């Protein structure tokens, strides 16, 4: 007789997520290892990945990540969910073709418009030919393609290239290693090797579960933006639990489950942090009423702070050469102890983000 799966309550899922995300205790790990474990770091904006690593690693230094980008062991590229991520060169080569299954579907309506005039393969070939001469800004790639096919939307043509052709964003000399409108290069030229042409969906699911599990199939599909993964999950040798709603949660066989009573320190997490994007049901990290209040229509995922393991408010930064201020806006009333813990953590974060500031201050709105 098959045993009934163990039920995991919300606090247990919360502490398990924080433990696996290195937010219960900072770890000592190399940059590449950390980024691999976290399944990459979303990086439409340059600064959030640095905050994500600062919150998770002991004595993290900005120069360590900038160095990894410069030596090409880490790259910025269109990856998970069709968004820009920082990923290791190894993971990019291993999983880019897996994500291509989703990337190619992401532009189906725009692709349909293009294919009425020209095969996508011809557009991709033209994009590659333009990039063979060297890195190009996205706007310049649009111009090249629009001149070739003047009746089509240049932006759509450039996105067709970006989603179908492995490209990496060039690191920038700025303080956070990137800027809007930066140049893209051919991945095989930048890395000296091409992505593995074989998709590894099971490998991608396993890597997700190691860092974000236990999770439902809907959670896996939300994080990866891939569809129809139930058959893949059913074919894998996985552990199974249930949540309090009775839904099946899948996990790697040796995935540690934390004690729901484990103390959780105050933490500040960045915009688009993985813990806020890792599940369809985000109750394990934020109450639904707070999620609705925080999320807005342009799909921005704001920076939040954690108290007792759960999102307890949002935060923002203003900085000058003389003073840096972190403003914490709680969802509700905070205890003095919580404010004290947040103040200590926030001041340390400010010293990391604004080392030139003569004074730092954490204020509560």
TrEMBL record:
Domain of life from the UniProt record: Bacteria
InterPro entries: AlkZ-like (IPR009351)
The protein's name in its UniProt record: Winged helix DNA-binding domain-containing protein
Source species of the chain: Caulobacter mirabilis
């Amino acid at each position: 007789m098959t045993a009934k799966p163990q039920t995991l309550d919300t606090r247990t899922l919360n502490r398990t997520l924080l433990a696996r995300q290195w937010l219960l205790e900072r770890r000592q790990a190399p940059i590449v290892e950390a980024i691999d474990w976290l399944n990459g770091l979303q990086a439409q904006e340059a600064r959030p990945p640095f905050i994500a690593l600062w919150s998770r690693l002991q004595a993290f230094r900005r120069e360590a990540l900038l160095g990894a980008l410069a030596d090409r062991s880490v790259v910025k590229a269109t990856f998970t969910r069709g968004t820009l991520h920082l990923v290791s060169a190894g993971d990019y080569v291993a999983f880019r073709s897996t994500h291509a299954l989703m990337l190619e579907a992401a532009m189906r309506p725009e692709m349909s418009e293009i294919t009425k005039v020209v095969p996508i393969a011809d557009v991709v070939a033209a994009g590659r030919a333009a990039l063979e001469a060297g890195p190009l800004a996205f706007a310049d790639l649009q111009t090249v393609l629009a001149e070739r096919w003047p009746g089509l939307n240049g932006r759509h043509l450039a996105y067709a290239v970006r989603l179908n052709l492995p490209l990496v964003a060039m690191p920038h000399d700025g303080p956070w290693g990137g800027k809007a409108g930066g140049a893209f290069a051919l991945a095989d030229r930048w890395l000296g090797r091409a992505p593995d042409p074989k998709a590894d969906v099971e490998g991608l699911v396993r890597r997700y579960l190691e860092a974000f599990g236990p999770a439902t199939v809907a959670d896996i599909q939300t994080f990866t933006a891939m569809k129809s993964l139930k058959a893949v999950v059913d074919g894998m040798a996985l552990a199974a639990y249930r949540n309090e709603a009775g839904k099946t949660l899948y996990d790697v066989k040796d995935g540690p489950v934390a004690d729901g009573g484990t103390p959780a320190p105050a933490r500040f997490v960045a915009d688009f942090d993985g813990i806020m994007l890792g599940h369809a049901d985000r109750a394990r990290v934020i109450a639904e009423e707070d999620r609705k209040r925080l999320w807005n229509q342009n799909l921005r995922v704001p920076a939040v702070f954690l108290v007792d393991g759960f999102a307890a408010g949002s935060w923002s930064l203003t900085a000058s050469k003389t003073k840096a201020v972190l403003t914490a806006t709680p969802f509700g009333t905070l205890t003095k102890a919580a404010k004290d813990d947040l103040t200590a953590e926030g001041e340390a974060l400010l010293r990391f983000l604004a080392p030139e500031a003569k004074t730092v201050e954490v204020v509560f709105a």
